[in-house]
Design a protein that fits this description.
The protein is an all-alpha fold and 207 residues long. 73% of the residues lie in helices and 0% in strands.
Length: 207
């Protein structure tokens, strides 16, 4: 379902800005969540949604990415559908290789030595043997943010910001905006307008 059809479907079922704005309880909802920029594919909203989605998708906190991105979509009026699409690209099947690459990139930029795979494997074994016990979770948390947290977050931020800015400027440069209708309508009105009285009078005087 395209964004235009989705927006039309909401209007058909009574979920529109005009109807909801008449109710004080849903006034905020009509002015924010039902803003056309959040659902329709316009150049500016699409570019903003891409930038927000890239930053959210590169967040290693899997499961909280959409909740963290939505306030920025509403405030900056970025396309929600594009943001969600990018976030879904980072799922349980892709988050591990992505975090490994982000950690490597962060170490390269910060000029830090990467931890050995043996040490990382040892921590994974401790967590798997301990299950979901408090000691195992605490050990994994301390290892994650004490040893690799800073390079990992820096790498994730670098990837998200780089992909987001590249996509943002490409969309702004390559997206062809449609000409404004009122301009063409004005030209059509002037072209078909009857001659002015002064023009007829001046032409008759000239003859």
């Amino acid at each position: 379902m395209s964004s235009f059809r989705f927006h039309r479907w909401m209007n058909k079922h009574g979920v529109s800005r005009r109807k909801l704005s008449q109710n004080k309880m849903f006034a905020w909802l009509s002015n924010h969540l039902l803003c056309k920029d959040l659902w329709l594919f316009h150049r500016d909203s699409l570019a903003r949604g891409w930038l927000i989605g890239s930053l959210a998708a590169s967040n290693p906190f899997l499961g909280f990415q959409i909740a963290m991105a939505m306030p920025f979509n509403i405030f900056f009026r970025g396309n929600i559908l594009v943001t969600i699409f990018l976030i879904l690209l980072t799922n349980p099947a892709t988050i591990i290789p992505f975090c490994i690459f982000a950690y490597w990139l962060g170490c390269q930029v910060l000029r830090e030595d990467m931890l050995s795979t043996a040490l990382i494997g040892e921590q994974i074994n401790i967590f798997s043997e301990g299950g979901m016990s408090f000691a195992a979770v605490q050990s994994a948390w301390q290892f994650l943010w004490g040893e690799i947290g800073v390079p990992l977050l820096f790498g994730c931020l670098s990837i998200g910001l780089g992909v987001g800015l590249i996509g943002y400027f490409l969309i702004m440069l390559l997206w062809k905006t449609a000409p404004k209708r009122h301009v063409s309508a004005h030209k059509h009105h002037v072209r078909n307008a009857p001659p002015h009285k002064n023009d007829n009078h001046s032409s008759s005087n000239g003859i």
